[in-house]
């Protein structure tokens, strides 16, 4: 791991003057003296002056394929921070379905020209440095957050770069491992329910696939908003969904969903996206309701036909469905994706602090065993959330 001269220091150098012990690769808590001509002219806790990491350890994706293509490399370059960016010393990063799909080639029309990539979206860690315009973060602060789905330099690295609005303060009541499992899934659910459907107290919400991370986050967000929540999930997740506040949890393996679920809903979030689930979800909506699916076709069509044809084709399909459902059934149809939202992330943090939102972690792996972690998800050896821990 290498460091450059701190920005803003044209001459002289910074000498370590002691204070609290720092952690590996992190200068948090140490006092430095600005030395010119052999004399100390200033003492500063690295607040206005930052060491910038120039290289660090990271997991690279040099080509698409199975878990074996992932490579843990030393001395991977760390780009300079833009004014609105934050350098985060990662302590834990979670493995999302998007990570394993991207590794296998999902989105290759977008990402193949940009290889090698660093996978990973979620992160929990400590602020190591901030850009010139960042005001809400300080060096040493514990934070958690998530990158946009199309980010090329992900979080499977000792030092990740996120924009200020992609991070917020980590709740003190949870560990880095627990925190890293939350942001990407919870923000995906938040955007669908709060930003798109604008759910409110007293409304009825159906979550198709409430056993996964996004679905379980959606159940908790809707319950916290005062909604009446029903969900479908596997039998192993029924008790957890009910304990989280769902009024009904239907085991889709043994029950007929259409017979088990009664009444109409104001919002349906479909995390599965199969044609049959879409049909059921649409039919359970009341007029004026919102159907939202995570399984939009933009990336898959772009991969199949190329960006020039695939993206316009996906847009045409979406517009056709929106027109069809709006004018025949009076409902709104959406493909929904995660995106950075500081309001949403802050609400998620508050719910975590109030113990109204959590995502269980089923298994942890050290970052050096990232291949084993991906293999466990590919083979469904671990049904729940997997987290990579960094020393």
Automatic annotation (TrEMBL):
InterPro entries: ADH-like_N (IPR013154), ER (IPR020843), GroES-like_sf (IPR011032), Lipid_raft_assoc_Zn_ADH (IPR052585), NAD(P)-bd_dom_sf (IPR036291). GO terms for molecular function: oxidoreductase activity. Pfam families: ADH_N, ADH_zinc_N_2. Residues 65-388 form the Enoyl reductase (ER) domain. Gene3D superfamilies: Medium-chain alcohol dehydrogenases, catalytic domain, NAD(P)-binding Rossmann-like Domain. PANTHER family: PROTEIN AST1-RELATED (PTHR43482). This is Enoyl reductase (ER) domain-containing protein. It comes from Punica granatum.
């Amino acid at each position: 791991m290498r460091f450059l001269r701190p920005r803003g220091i044209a001459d002289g150098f910074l000498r370590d003057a002691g204070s609290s012990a720092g952690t590996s690769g992190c200068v948090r808590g140490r006092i430095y003296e600005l030395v010119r001509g052999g004399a100390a002219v200033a003492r500063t806790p690295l607040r206005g002056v930052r060491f910038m990491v120039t290289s660090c350890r990271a997991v690279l994706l040099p080509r698409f394929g199975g878990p074996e293509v992932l490579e843990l490399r030393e001395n991977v370059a760390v780009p300079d921070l833009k004014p609105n960016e934050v350098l985060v010393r990662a302590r834990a990063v979670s493995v999302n379905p998007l990570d394993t799909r991207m590794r296998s080639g999902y989105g290759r029309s977008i990402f193949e020209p940009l290889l090698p990539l660093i996978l990973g979206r979620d992160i929990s860690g400590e602020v190591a440095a901030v850009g010139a315009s960042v005001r809400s973060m300080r060096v040493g602060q514990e934070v958690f957050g998530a990158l946009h789905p199309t980010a090329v330099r992900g979080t499977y690295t000792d030092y990740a770069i996120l924009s200020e609005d992609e991070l917020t303060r980590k709740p003190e009541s949870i560990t880095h491992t627990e925190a890293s499992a939350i942001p990407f899934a919870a923000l995906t659910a938040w955007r669908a329910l709060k930003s798109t459907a604008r759910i409110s107290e007293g409304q009825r919400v159906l979550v198709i696939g409430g056993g996964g991370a996004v679905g379980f986050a959606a159940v908790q967000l809707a319950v916290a908003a005062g909604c009446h929540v029903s969900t479908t999930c596997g039998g192993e997740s029924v008790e957890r969904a009910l304990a989280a506040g769902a009024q009904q949890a239907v085991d889709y393996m043994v029950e007929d969903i259409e017979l088990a679920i009664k009444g109409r809903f104001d919002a349906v979030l479909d995390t599965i996206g199969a044609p049959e689930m879409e049909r059921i979800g649409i039919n359970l909506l009341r007029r004026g309701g919102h159907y939202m699916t995570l399984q939009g076709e933009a990336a898959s069509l772009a991969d199949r036909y190329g960006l020039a044809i695939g993206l316009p084709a996906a847009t045409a399909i979406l517009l056709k469905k929106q027109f069809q459902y709006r004018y025949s059934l009076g409902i709104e149809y959406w493909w929904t994706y995660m995106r950075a939202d500081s309001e949403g992330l802050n609400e998620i943090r508050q719910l975590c602090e109030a113990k109204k939102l959590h995502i269980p972690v089923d298994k942890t792996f050290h970052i050096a065993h990232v291949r084993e972690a991906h293999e466990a998800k590919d083979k469904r050896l671990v049904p729940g959330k997997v987290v990579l821990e960094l020393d």
